[in-house]
Design a protein that fits this description.
single chain, 115 residues, mainly alpha, Rna Polymerase Sigma Factor, Chain: A, 4 helices, 0% strand, elongated
Length: 115
């Protein structure tokens, strides 16, 4: 990035940084770590796509759109990760010790005798 472009980006970013904070807080109000991760991802996306900003809209409008799209994508990824982890956990077989205990209980009937 040229120096003028970089300076212009930083000036616009600093004037409108509240937009990014609001979007991050909206999507991850109770999880500071996720909020920080999303903030970093939004900053990266803004930096990466700034050369494509043509000035056809206000910088703040463009910034909000990038932040919002990044937040939606980040949320989808993190939600998919949680659901795939939980589905993996449900497929993990029980340990041999627990399996043996359940078999003994089943053979003894419904009595809950400590093993």
């Amino acid at each position: 990035m040229r120096v003028e472009t970089e300076t212009s980006f930083l000036v616009n970013l600093n004037q409108n940084i509240g937009i990014v904070h609001r979007v991050c807080h909206t999507y991850f109000a109770y999880d500071a770590a996720e909020r920080e991760e999303l903030f970093q991802e939004v900053m990266y996306q803004l930096w990466k796509s700034y050369l494509k900003f043509k000035g056809e809209s206000k910088f703040s409008t463009w910034m909000y759109k990038v932040a919002l799209n990044t937040a939606i994508t980040h949320t989808r990824r993190s939600t998919r990760g949680i659901s795939s982890k939980s589905s993996m956990m449900s497929r993990i077989p029980e340990s041999p010790t627990n399996f043996a205990r359940h078999q003994k209980r089943a053979l003894l009937g419904s009595s809950m005798v400590p093993l």
